[in-house]
Amino acid sequence: MMFDEEPSAEKKSEHSSNRVERILTILKTLQDRWCSQEELLKLHPDYSKRTFYRDLEDIRQFFGNAIQTNKDGQFRFIPDGTIYFRSLDLTYIEALSLYLLCQLGYGSERAIPYLETATAAMQKLRCLGYGLFDEDISEHARMLHMELAPCVYRTNGQIFTALLQAQHTHHSVKLVYDSIFDGGKIQTFVEPYLVHFMRRAWYVTGRSSFHSHEIRSFHLERIISLEIQGNLKFFTPENWDYNMYRGNAWNMIRGPEDLEIHLHFTRKVARNVSAVNWHKTQNIKRNDDGSIEFFVKVAGTMEIVWWILGYGPEVEVMEPESLRREVREKIKGMSRIYENDPINPPASELQT
């Protein structure tokens, strides 16, 4: 009777090495893209089906929740946990710039809310050595200044952290939310597509069950409570893009239609207005007297009308007529407030 020879240690090592190489190759593919089993096989034609399915099953058992599955039956490797970096070799200017950015994360009402962790990151970078963040850089940083507009006071860092966790693991969240537009507290299930900071506050944008599953943005400071829904998975549509969703909104609130707006700014403010890129569609024409014509295409007027009013008598709405009427009505409303001013009555009343 003939017996199969036991594989030599050399063959075992070679087999093990090949298997590790296959698994790492599959993981690299799944880290780069969503793939079905059939798509993976096509990308790796050298693997036999039997070997491939065995390796894939081992990967799924070992990595657990890190192997995500979408509604189309595709897989992706989304690792969890801490990210480790090699020691950095930064130039002096790079280190100084990083130091200043970390300083924006904490320390005053003008800091970016919820970024206190930048302090911890800065301390870890300091420990890397090589003179990074030494006394010289700290002293130099005092001669540079970066300032943000005052931000809303942060009330609940746990909500921010939980929201980032839900976004990372692709779980929906249940919000109790104090909604201005909906007239009070609402409860909704939200798929957190994007967490973003705009001007003075943080927002989360995603599909909302309360709003007929339309995509909405929620101000984090108005979230009363948040619960991660471990049994509700979501996947951000591959073609979804926040800038496309926002369209031509002046800031965040997109109106029902795009309007061609023409504003005339006097010479007094023309240079300051021209120096800023206020909107991606703006176009400016300079006049001989120093004034400018400002053209922009905006989706809705809810936000831009307050920007216009901020320039007072130095700006005039030329088109469209609907925006001109809106500004006129708001000016009339402001005027009525001050017509009968009990604090500063007219001079004729003082004389009597």
What descriptors fit this protein?
single chain; 12 helices; Arc Repressor Mutant, subunit A; SH3 type barrels; 352 residues; 4 domains; four-stranded antiparallel β-sheet; five-stranded antiparallel β-sheet
How would you describe this protein?
This protein folds into four domains: 17-77, Winged helix-like DNA-binding domain superfamily/Winged helix DNA-binding domain (Arc Repressor Mutant, subunit A, Orthogonal Bundle), CATH 1.10.10; 92-141, no CATH class; 157-239, SH3 type barrels (Roll), CATH 2.30.30.520; 258-336, Alpha-Beta Plaits. With 352 residues, the protein is an alpha+beta fold. It contains twelve helices and eleven strands. Strands 6-5-4-3-7 form a five-stranded antiparallel sheet, with helices on one face. It has a four-stranded antiparallel sheet with strand order 9-10-8-11.
SS strand fraction? 15-25%
Helix fraction, binned, reads 25-40%
CATH architecture of the largest domain: Roll
Question: Which regions contain 5 or more consecutive residues with pLDDT less than 50?
Answer: 1-16
Mean pLDDT: 81
Going across the biggest sheet, name each strand in turn: 6-5-4-3-7
Give the CA-based shape: globular
Count of runs of 4 or more consecutive helical residues: 12
Radius of gyration: 29 Å
Compact overview of the structure:
By secondary structure, the protein is of the alpha+beta class.
